[in-house]
Design a protein that fits this description.
Two copies of one chain form a homodimer.
Chain A (H helix, E strand, L loop, with lengths): L10 H7 L1 H20 L6 H12 L5 H8 L3 H13 L3 E5 L7 E5 L1 H23 L3 H15 L2
Antiparallel strand pairs in A: 1-2
Helix pairs in contact in A: 2-6, 4-5
Chain A binds a DNA duplex (30 and 30 nucleotides) through helix 2 and helix 5.
Chain lengths: 149, 149
Amino acid sequence: MAGTDAALPSLELVARSCLCRRVQHASRAIGKRFDDAFRPVGLNNWQFTLLMAVTAEAGPTVNQIAAELGMDRTTATKNLRILERRGLIEMRVDAQDRRIRRSALTAEGQQVLQAALLRWRQVNDAVGGSLRPEQLASLNAALETIAQA
Amino acid sequence: MAGTDAALPSLELVARSCLCRRVQHASRAIGKRFDDAFRPVGLNNWQFTLLMAVTAEAGPTVNQIAAELGMDRTTATKNLRILERRGLIEMRVDAQDRRIRRSALTAEGQQVLQAALLRWRQVNDAVGGSLRPEQLASLNAALETIAQA
DNA sequence: GACTATTGGGTGGATATACACCTAATAGAG
DNA sequence: CTCTATTAGGTGTATATCCACCCAATAGTC
C-alpha cells in the first residue's frame, strides 16, 4: 500500500521467500523423521550424527567435531557429555597436549551405531527418494553453500 | 571392506550422503546469519519468523502458527510467551470459543518488525545471491518437499 | 625462567525443541 | 440434559543451541 515505506518488502514477499524460515522448517521436519527412525535404538538424529563424527577420524577433538558439524563448540561439549554418560563414547585427555580431549566409541557405542545404520539408510533413502535425482544433487550443493557461509 | 556386514552402508557413504546432517548443518549456519542480522533490533531468527506468522493472518491461533511453521504446538506456546512477555505480541481468548487464544502484534511489535524487515532483506538477498537462480528455485522446491513429509 | 599471547575447553544462562501427560471448553449422541 | 469424544491449549522434563565469560595448558618472547 502507499503510505508505507517503499523500501520495505511486503509481508507476503517475506513469508514466501524467507530462506531462513524454509530451511528451519525443513530442518525440524527431517530431524523429526530421523528421530522417529532412530527411536527404537535409543538415539535421536543429532546423536547419530555425533557418533558418526566420532568415528570419522581417529580420536577427533571437541573442536574438530564442532567444526565438522558446524555447531558451537560448547554445544558439542554438552552433547558429547550425554553420549559419554550413556557409555557410548569415551573422552580422554591427549598424552602430548593435556588441553586436548579426544573422543572414541566404546564397544556399546559401536553396537548402537551399527544398529542405527540400517535405519539410517531406510529413512535417508525415503527422504532422498521424494526428490528427483538432479534435484537431490542440487539440494546437496545448495545446502553445502549455505553451510559454509 | 570385506568382513563387515554387506547390508550396512559404509561410514564414508553415510557421512557424505546424510541428508539430515546436511540440512541440520545448513539450518545452524543460516540461523546464525539471521541471528546476527537481527541482533541490533533485539530479535533472533525464529522470533522474526514468529512475528511474521502472527501478522500473516488475522489473529492466528497457537495451533495455526505451529502448523504453518511446522513446529511442535508446545514449542509455539513457549516461544509466543517470550514475545508476549517482551510486549511484542498479545494473546487473547477468543470471544466465541474460549478454548482458543488468538495472537496479534502490539504497536511495539509492529515497530520492531518494521525495523527488522530491512535487515531481513539484506541477509536473505545475500544468502540467496550465493546460489544461482535456478539452484535457488530448486532449493526452495526441495525444502518444501522435505518440510511437508 | 618469567611474562604474555594463543589455544583447547568448560560453565552458566537464556532460549529452542519435542514428548508425555494434563486441564478446560466445546461438540455430539442418546 | 447428561455422558463421552474431540479439540485447544498448557506444564514438566530432557535435551539442543548459542553466547558471554572463565580456566588451564601450551607456545612464543625476552
